[in-house]
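Record type: ASSEMBLY
Status: queued
Input:
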Amino acid sequence: MKTSLGAKTLASPTPTWVVCAYDAAGKPNGATIAWGGICCSKPPCLAISLRAATYTHGCITASKAFTVNVPRQDQAVIADYFGMASGRDTDKFAAAGVSAGKSDLVSAPYLQEFPLVFECALTHVVELGLHTQFVGEIKDVKADPEILTDGKIDMEKLGTVLYSPATRQYFGLGPLLGAGFSIGNAYVK
Amino acid sequence: MKTSLGAKTLASPTPTWVVCAYDAAGKPNGATIAWGGICCSKPPCLAISLRAATYTHGCITASKAFTVNVPRQDQAVIADYFGMASGRDTDKFAAAGVSAGKSDLVSAPYLQEFPLVFECALTHVVELGLHTQFVGEIKDVKADPEILTDGKIDMEKLGTVLYSPATRQYFGLGPLLGAGFSIGNAYVK
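Status: finished
Output:
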């Protein structure tokens, strides 16, 4: 018998992504989000959700582009900070001691110290209620060589940071459990 | 200097969610997805993406409801199987030795053996290309008592299963890294 927890966003866990965009003055801005994920394979797209009240919401609406920046485990503190302060009154990059690069594919900055970046062009805006969902077509994925093995992302090197909204906690990536489209063969007749 | 990996859906990692819906004959169906996430806080909503060619796509389009079922680490094999077979020609529940319960809030089945279930009513359909995104309003979250501490989800008890599309691997949840809206105070002046 399951226990009812109510109509809540108790995902388990979510990504920890820092979304970067330029404001109207061309200043790089970044905000950490937990509401997001890949949403289409062809064209490759991801979705992020932001409240209209956030500074980054206005930046993306105007610039029609953003990057998604994925932290290493030891960068959870930076990601948490980017979710606490507002770009309206703070230069978060300077405060956290990180630097903004400029995407050469879309009109958006990226967080140079984070090891994995998705460069996205805005394609859909879906008003859902408190949050607006922005869908971005992934124009390129760029990675630091340190997280690659044979030219591909190595999840154990990336580590990354996961968030639990239910408990407001960050977690690292755990042990390898098995190969996809493979271990399920146990049930194929 | 970052390395370009191309325009790909290399998310890192994604959820491993089994989406359940009834087909036109009332038969429970389930399919594992990696493209999904929470997308709005009020009303609480999550998004999942499915290819139009999948059996579950048709089920959700017709029934306008679905559940999202979250596995424990030791259920990764079941989740992988539900992503390999098709409900068109297989009773996946019987093959994997699991059972379908009936949601009392939406017209959808759920996977009784999985510890965490989101019951969702379809609110938006967004055609993105190869995938259709279905947004569902979360009507309730139901959990097995075994994953709760003081009535709340305990991420270390849930464990859960994460997927890496880049490498086609499943991972468990890793170590606690810190508290959200807290560790970032290190950079607040």
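Annotation: Residues 14-187 of chain B form a domain with the Pnp Oxidase; Chain A fold (CATH 2.30.110.10).
Annotation: The helical segments of chain B are 55-63, 76-82, 92-96, 155-158.
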